[in-house]
UniProtKB/TrEMBL annotation:
Protein family per UniProt: Belongs to the LysR transcriptional regulatory family.
Sorted UniProt keywords: DNA-binding, Transcription, Transcription regulation
Keyword Transcription regulation among record annotations: yes
PROSITE patterns tied to this protein: HTH_LYSR
Molecular function (Gene Ontology), one example: DNA-binding transcription factor activity
Name the record gives this protein: LysR family transcriptional regulator
PANTHER family found in the cross-reference section: HTH-TYPE TRANSCRIPTIONAL ACTIVATOR TTDR-RELATED, HTH-TYPE TRANSCRIPTIONAL REGULATOR
A Pfam match: HTH_1
Species whose genome carries this gene: Gluconacetobacter asukensis
SUPFAM superfamilies membership: Periplasmic binding protein-like II, Winged helix' DNA-binding domain
């Protein structure tokens, strides 16, 4: 058996283990299910052992398969590292980069950065998907993900913080003229509140207390909306108070379409991170995007450069 066939069999085996089925492995590799199954079968025949237990619903490793799987990972990691090192030395940013972005943040904030990277690197092809679902990079074959909130502690991922998400309570001037401006947290409970909903459940508002800590304010929303930009638009159109990230509301605040309600300080509620699968060497196409995101958003992202200095926010003067 030649080296190409050996590597093909090992790759089919590893992808089958990681995805849990020949069908998913085939989709990741861009081949047919039967080709994947045959590659694994030929590998088992050559080795003289059964590597996988097969049922109609799933695959599982045999004891011999577990040991061989670990060996395959080391071999493939060495191969990937060698290829990454070669690409780094060639200083070539090329190939297809699969990126997953949060829907609203991705469109409004990350895409302008990625567009600039693509223009500067004509041999780089971007394959960008948008979802607020937490994707599995390894299983879904994604090279890079931007994640809002807790990045998680995944053994197969590494990453870097690119910004801190800050949020404010705000409303349209017309709404505040009509309903009055709340002067305390308790007053907020008597206002029309707009809440971001996830899976049909409104999320609490994280506010700062008098001791500099944070607490969750559970509001009874007049309206709940499951899309960030739609929630912002509802606030701009005077439907009520909203708790919005500054990356989403910053431009409207600067232009006066939204006004920050001065009953809570600017809240740093979660990190914004970029993550990629763990490897020995960061490939040039991943590195150039990571570096661009860090450069664009650190130390203070552009949407916060005026807001964090605003006099009407206590503690930021």
């Amino acid at each position: 058996m030649n080296l190409h066939s050996q590597l093909q069999g090992m790759s089919a085996f590893v992808h089958s283990v990681e995805t849990g089925s020949f069908t998913a492995a085939a989709a990741r590799m861009g081949v047919s299910k039967s080709a994947t199954g045959k590659s694994v079968a030929r590998l088992e025949e050559r080795l003289g052992v059964r590597l996988l237990n097969r049922t109609t619903r799933s695959l599982s490793l045999t004891a011999e398969g577990q040991a061989y799987y670990q060996s395959c990972l080391k071999i493939l990691d060495e191969l990937n590292a060698a290829e990454s090192l070669l690409a780094s030395r060639m200083h070539s940013v090329s190939g297809t980069l699969r990126v997953n972005l949060p829907v609203s943040f991705g469109r409004l904030c990350a895409m302008p950065v990625l567009t600039t990277v693509a223009v500067r690197n004509p041999d780089l092809d971007l394959d960008i998907s948008f979802t607020d679902r937490r994707v599995d990079l390894v299983e879904e074959g994604i090279d890079l993900v931007v994640r809002l909130g807790d990045p998680g502690d995944h053994v197969n991922l590494v990453g870097r913080s690119i910004a801190t998400q800050r949020s404010v309570i705000c409303a349209a001037p017309a709404y505040l003229e009509r309903k009055g401006c709340p002067s305390s947290i308790e007053d907020i409970r008597h206002h029309d509140c707009l809440a971001f909903a996830r899976d049909g459940r409104p999320l609490p508002w994280m506010i700062s207390d008098q001791h500099g800590g944070q607490k969750a304010l559970v509001v009874r929303p007049r309206h709940q909306i499951g899309h960030g930009e739609a929630l912002r638009d509802a606030a701009v159109n005077g439907l009520g108070l909203a708790y919005l990230s500054t990356w989403l509301a910053g431009e409207d605040i600067r232009r006066g379409r939204l006004v920050m309600v001065p009953v809570a300080t600017l809240t740093e509620d979660s990190p914004i991170s970029v993550l990629w699968p763990r490897s020995r060497d960061l490939s040039p196409k991943v590195r150039v995007v990571v570096d661009a995101l860090v450069s664009a958003f650190m130390p203070i992202p552009p949407w916060d450069q005026e807001i964090v200095r605003a006099k009407e926010i206590p503690g930021t003067q």
